[in-house]
Structure formats: C-alpha cells, structure tokens
Amino acid sequence: MRIKTKLTYGIGMLFAMIVLLGILSLSYINKLNNETHKIYTNNNYSLDYCRNMLSVLDELNTSKRALQVFTSNLQMQQKNLTEVNEKETTYKLTVHFEKHRIKKDQQSLREIRSDIYTIMTLNMASIYHKSEVAKQTAMNALLWICLTFAVCIVFALAILFRFPHSILKPIRELINGITEIANHNYDKRLNFEPTSEFGEVSTSFNKMAERLNEYRASTLADIIANKKYIEAIVNSITEPIIGLDNEKKILFINDEALNILNLKRENIIRKSAAELALKNDLLRRLVRELVNPEEKKEPLKIYADNKESYFQANYIPIRVIETGETEPHNIGDVILLKNITEFKELDTAKTTFLSTISHELKTPISAIMMSLQLLEDKRIGALNEEQESLSHSIKENSERLLSITGELLKLTQVETGKLQLMPKITKPIELIEYAIKATRMQAEKFGCHIEVEYPEKIAKLFVDSEKIAWVLTNLLSNAIHYSKENSRIIIGAQQTGDVVEMFVQDFGKGIDPRYHESIFDRYFRVPGTKVQGSGLGLSISKDFIEAQNGTLTVESEVGKGSKFIIRFNVK
Ligand code: ADP
Fold first, then answer.
1. I need a labelling partner for 224 at 20 to 30 A (CA). Which of 44, 163, 262, 375 fits?
2. 408 C-beta closer than 6 A to ligand 1
3. What is the pLDDT of residues 379-424, one digit of tens each?
4. Are the CB atoms for 127 and 43 separated by under 8 Å?
C-alpha cells in the first residue's frame, strides 16, 4: 500500500473515532439533561404547589391571603398533571376544596390534606423512579464513552507504533542497498511493492546495480588491457620519461629513464622520488627543478653507455577533469628528457666554425680598411667624385662586416664558456663617455642629439669596463638606428639605494610588448625591421651583463620609444 493511502486511512480512522466519541458524549449529556429537567418541571413543581397549599391549609377559614395562595397553587397544579392518577387526585382535591369553601368543616379539610399527600406521594414516587432511570443512563454513558475511548487509544497506539515503522522500513532498506553498492556489492537488489512510492526507486536501483555489474565485468578487463597498452606506449618512447603523482611518488618510468638514472624498476615504482633522490644525483636535480620551476634549467650532462649525452628536461603537469567537476586539477607531473646531444654537437660545430670564420675574416677586413685609408690619403692621389663615393661605400660595408665579425667572436666566447672577465673599479660616466665617443660619427650622420643625465654623486662599479662599454655602445647605436633623424637620445646613470642604473632612452619607433623578451634571443629581429643588423647585439649584451650579476631590461611602447636599463647591485 502507498504511504499516502496509509496516512489517509490512519488519520481518517482516528478522526472518525474522535467524532464518534464526541457524538456519543453529547447525546448522553443531552439525555441526562432532559431527564433531570423533567424531574424538575414535572415533579418538583407539583411538590412545591402541594407544600404551599399545606402551609396555608389551616388558615383557609380565617385568612383571605391563605385562600388566595391556596387557589393560585391549586390552579398551577391543575396545569401540571404528569403522573398516573395525578389528574384524578387533583380533581378530587378541587372538589374537596370547593366543598370546604361552602361548608368550612373539618371533614373536608382532612380530605383536602389527604388529597395533597396523595399528590405528593405520587410525585415523590415518580422522582425516585426517574432518578433511577437517570442513574442507569449515566452508567450507560460512562460505559460507552469508556469503551469508545479505549478503542480510540488502542487504534491511536497502533498508528503511532506501526506508521513510522512502515515509512522507515523501505527507507532503511534503500540506505542499506546504497551502502552495499558503495561497498562494490553490485548483486544487491531491492524488492519494494511496485504500487508503493518506492516501487519506481527500487526499479531504478535494480537497473543501476545491473549496469554497474556489467560495467565492472567489462571495465576490469578494459583497464588491465589499457594499462598494458599505456605501459607499452611509455616504453616505446625513445626519450626517457618519468611519471609522478602529486606526492612525488613514481607512477611509471620507461627503460630509457631507468638506464640513464641507473635504477631498477622494481625498486622505484610507487616509491617517493624525493627519498630515492637522496642516493641519486640526477634524480635529485630533476626533483629540485620540478619543485622550483623558476630555477634556470641548464641541459643535463649524463654519462651513459660509455658516452657523454645531453638532455633537456621538460616538466609537464598532468591535469584532468574529474567526473562531475568542471575545472581541471593537477594529479601529478611527467618529466620528459629530450636527448639534445646531436643538437649540442651541431651547436658546438657551429660555434667553432663561427669562431674560425670570424677570426679568419678579421685580418682581410682590417687589410681592406687599411687600403681604403691609404686610398683616401690625398698624398697618393685625389679621387674623383664617383671613386670617392665608391670608396665611402666600401668603407661603410667593411665597418659593418668588422662589427658583425666582432659580434660573432664575442658570441662564440659566450657560447664556449670562454668569456673572460677582467673587472676593475670604474665610474659609470667613463663608460657613458666611451659609448658616446664610439657612436659620435653615427650620431652626427643621423643628426641625433645625445643628452647625458648624470647625478652629482653615484657609486663606482666593479665591472669589466670594456664589456660594459661595448654593451652601452651597442645600445646607443641601436637607439640611433631605430630613431628618426634629428631625434633626441638620453644616456645616463642614477642610483636608487644599492642599485646603480645605466640607461639609454630613445624616442623612436618603440618595440611591441610581444617582443620584449624575444629581442634578447640570438638572431632575433623584430619582424618588419628595415635597418640592417644581425640580431645578436642585445643577446650578447644580456650575456655580458648577466655574467657580471647585473640585469638588462627594456621598457618600450610602440610609437613612443624605448629605454634599455642595465642594473648592478653595488652593495
Ligand atoms: P640588431 O640591431 O643587430 O638587429 P639587436 O640584438 O641589437 O640586433 O636588436 C634586436 C632587435 O631589437 C632589432 O632587430 C630591432 O628590431 C629591435 N631593437 C633593438 N633596439 C631597438 C630600439 N632602440 N628601438 C626599436 N627597436 C629596437
């Protein structure tokens, strides 16, 4: 039966019992009331009339008022004839009263008194009888009301105990079923009456359990197959790969990674990488770089299989969207080691080649420059206008070649780690003046006005002045090249606390913020740059500054100009 029907029946029955009890009580109260009322009107009144008549009976012949009282009470008694023989006796009393009024004798008085006593006796008997009846009625009322009350109580108790139980029973069974499913007992089924409210729930529950059963049977085999498949993929990757969970425990690792780490699979799976790293330098470095992503990541040099190899580590976070969620969250990381030995070798070959070529080129270019100088010497002979312009062009190109070979040589120094620093105490103004002097010709050619901003007091620097001067010259040369003709350029220095800044600011075309980082990369040139160049100046400058623990940054806005700032901590 549905809970709703049970509720309706239960409460309906209780309500009916209460109504029945009410009706029963009311009808008995009414009946008792009628009976007492009847005693009062039928008999008590007659007794009162009789008592009044008796009280004035002896004065009938002497008092007028007594006669009046008697007459009026007799008349009222004549109207209140309710008992058997009362009418006849009252009639007799009337006749005897009339007789006494005429004769006024003692005989008639006795007869009157006897009649009154008879009427009183009749009424007294009736009162006794009616009280007996009322008593009986009260007893019946008490019995029936008690009986009905008892039935009500029994019924209410039955509802009170049975009803919550009948509601809770299916809910308990449902909770029990859900717990079983949560404990992976997918054979659990519910058997509620199909017509009850829980009928639909049990059908859906059974369907769900059935599907989960099928799902378990199919997924277990799938999971094992997929796991093997993934393991095979991981092992077939030729680059070393390591998978870690959020607690940095090793989830998977391929043979390549085991080989370079010199570890055995069975000793490390599900083990904490941090603990294993205590005995393994390479793993220690990988874990440290994974935990501190901001740390500079140099390629790893590894000796494996009797040869030197270089690896670049990539740290890839594993992000998944869990079922029922919308945002992905981290469940671990993959460390992928890319073998860059071949590139490294090619790079070394390139650097050696560049170094040789630029070194070899320097001597013939210097010779060309020397010859040009001689050619321009008036003592050898004057050149005509065309020859002069040709010689000027050869000079310009030779200077460019010399500067490029210079840059390439410096680059090879940086790349081969042969950068030699010779620091000495230097005033920033000396470096600025050197740069201005070195670019004077260019500045004059483009009509640029170079302004110097220099404070009265500034700390000295302990740097390789030749390299810093080269950087400032390069920055100033760029500022001249990338500004319009006749524009203003500011070169200067300032000190804020322990930091000394040297800057070169122009009001030229500026640099799009997208390229603020890339301009410091090797051979990078902002797309669309028309001025000729190698794309090496800024990258070498940055290396020179960073090699001396300084920084080189740019602040620039397209159309407004650029400001390159070198910072050194002088503390
Ligand atoms: P190069 O000037 O030889 O091309 P750099 O490394 O000195 O190489 O500069 C890289 C690129 O940065 C340049 O090609 C140019 O596009 C941009 N750049 C450098 N300095 C400035 C500047 N002051 N104003 C605008 N662009 C600049």
1. 262
2. no
3. 878 888 898 889 988 988 888 888 888 888 888 888 887 778 899 9
4. yes
User: Residue 100 class from Cβ within 10 Å (0-12 exposed, 13-18 middle, 19+ buried)?
Assistant: buried
Complete edge-to-edge strand list for the sheet that includes strand 250-253 = 250-253, 241-245, 329-339, 307-320, 300-304
Cβ neighbourhood burial of 571 (10 Å; 0-12, 13-18, 19+): exposed
Position 354 scores a pLDDT of 86
Instruction: Identify the CA nearest to 428 among candidates 457, 460, 450.
Output: 460
Pocket of ligand 1 contains residue 476 by CB under 6 Å: no
Q: Is the dihedral of CA 155, 157, 161, 167 positive or negative?
A: positive
Nearest to 8 by CA among 173, 151, 159: 159
Ligand 1 centroid, distance to 531 Cα (angstroms): 9
Laid out side by side, the sheet with 561-569 consists of: 449-453, 488-496, 499-506, 561-569, 551-557
Q: What pTM was computed for the model?
A: 0.51
Single-letter residue type at 346:
L
400 lines ligand 1 (CB under 6 A): no
- Evaluate: CB of 406 within 6 angstroms of ligand 1: no
Among protein residues, the one whose CA lies closest to atom 19 of ligand 1: 478
